[in-house]
Design a protein that fits this description.
10 strands, disordered N terminus, globular, binds magnesium ion, binds adenosine-5'-triphosphate, alpha/beta, single chain
C-alpha cells in the first residue's frame, strides 16, 4: 500500500493575499461562460454580506446546538469552519440552507432575511448550493442526468440547454468523459465531483460544503479539493466545514473555530491554525495533529513509504 498523507496535492500559492480577512477584491470574475454561478455584486445588495447570522439559537429539544452565533460572510469570501464533533458545524450549514428551523435570531442572504415568515424556501435554496459527505446521487441516473434533473424539473430548463450546461460543468470538474456513467461506475472522488457539479447547476450564489472529503479514500481527497480550490479562485463564496487543515490554510480567507455551539475563535487561517489564542482551539488542533500523525504512522506500518 502506498504511503499517503493528508497533503495529497500541493496547492500553488496565488497572487491573492494570503492573510485577508474578507473579500478577495483581486479575484478573477466568475467563470467567463457564466455556467457555474451568477455573482451578485455587493453594490447590488447595498453592500450586504452574502450570508449573515445574527444571534442564531438552534436547539434540538433541550440540547442547545447553536448558542447565539453571529457570523458574516462576504461576497467571494471562503470561510472555513473547524471544530470538534458535535460542536454544531453541520447544524450551522443546515440552518443557512433552511434545512433546519432556528429558535431565535435571524439569517440573511444577500441582505434579505431568509428566516422570516412566509419566505419562499425553494427560491432561497436555489441560491445556496450544499454538498455533503455522502454524495446522495441518484443511482439509477447517469452522471449527466443527475446534474440536469433538478434544472429541468424545478427551473424548467429545456433538456438540450440543461444537458449542454451539464456537460460544461462535468468538464469543469474533470469528468467530461463520464457523462453517461452511472454512480456505481465512478470512484468516490468522481461521485463527489458529480455532486459538486450538480449543486453548481442551479447557479448558486454561495456554496456550503460539509466535510465533503471525509468519506473518501485519502488518495481521492486531492481531486475533490482541487475542484473546490478552483471555485475559490473563480470567486465563489463558500462556507466549508473540513478537517483538512492544509487546505484551510491554502484556500480559506478566514477560519472559524466552533465549540459547544459557539464561535470560540476566528481570524486569518495562519493565525488561527498556527498560533491559536484560545486554549480550547490549541487543544483541538493538538489532537487533530496527533490523529493525523497516528494515521500516517499506521499507513507507514502497513505498507512502508514510497
Ligand atoms: N436532527 C437532529 N436531532 C437531534 N439532535 C441533533 C440533530 N442533528 C444534530 N443534533 C445534535 O446537535 C449537535 C451538533 O451536531 P452537528 O451535527 O451540527 O455537529 P458537527 O459539529 O457537525 O459534528 P461532526 O464533526 O461530528 O459532524 C450534536 O449534539 C448532535 O447530536
Ligand atoms: Mg457535521
Amino acid at each position: 500500500m502506498k504511503r499517503v498523507t493528508f497533503m495529497v496535492i500541493s496547492f500553488r500559492s496565488t497572487t491573492e493575499p494570503q492573510q485577508g480577512t474578507g473579500r478577495r477584491a483581486g479575484r478573477q470574475p466568475l467563470d467567463p461562460m457564466g455556467l457555474a454561478t451568477t455573482p451578485v455584486p455587493a453594490e447590488e445588495t447595498n453592500g450586504a454580506a452574502m450570508v449573515r447570522l445574527e444571534a442564531v439559537h438552534k436547539s434540538f429539544g433541550d440540547n442547545l446546538v447553536l448558542d447565539s452565533v453571529d457570523l458574516s460572510v462576504d461576497h467571494g469570501e471562503v470561510l472555513v469552519i473547524i471544530g470538534p464533533s458535535g460542536s454544531g458545524k453541520s447544524t450551522l450549514l443546515r440552518c443557512v440552507n433552511l434545512l433546519e428551523p432556528i429558535q431565535a435570531g435571524r439569517i440573511f442572504l444577500e441582505g434579505e432575511e431568509i428566516t422570516r415568515k412566509g419566505v419562499d424556501v425553494s427560491a432561497i435554496r436555489q441560491r445556496i448550493g450544499i454538498v455533503f459527505q455522502q454524495f446522495n446521487l441518484f443511482p439509477q441516473l447517469t452522471a449527466l442526468d443527475n446534474l440536469t434533473l433538478a434544472a429541468r424539473r424545478i427551473r424548467k430548463i429545456p433538456r438540450k440547454e440543461a444537458e449542454a450546461r451539464g456537460r460544461e460543468l462535468l468538464a469543469s470538474v474533470g469528468l467530461a468523459e463520464k457523462a453517461s456513467q452511472h454512480p456505481h461506475q465512478l470512484s468516490g472522488g468522481q461521485q463527489q465531483r458529480v455532486a459538486i457539479a450538480r449543486a453548481l447547476m442551479m447557479q448558486p450564489h454561495v456554496m456550503l460544503f460539509d466535510e465533503v472529503t471525509s468519506a473518501l479514500d485519502p488518495e481521492l481527497v486531492g481531486e475533490v479539493l482541487v475542484v473546490i480550490r478552483n471555485l475559490a479562485r473563480e470567486g465563489m463564496t463558500m462556507l466549508i466545514v473540513t478537517h483538512e487543515m492544509q487546505f484551510a490554510k491554502e484556500v480559506g480567507d478566514r477560519v472559524v473555530f466552533m465549540d459547544g455551539g459557539r464561535i470560540v475563535e476566528e481570524g486569518p487561517p495562519r493565525d488561527v491554525l498556527d498560533s491559536p489564542k484560545q486554549e480550547r482551539t490549541q487543544q483541538f488542533l493538538r489532537r487533530t495533529q496527533l490523529a493525523h500523525t497516528l494515521e500516517e504512522l499506521a499507513l507507514d506500518e502497513e505498507g512502508g513509504s514510497e
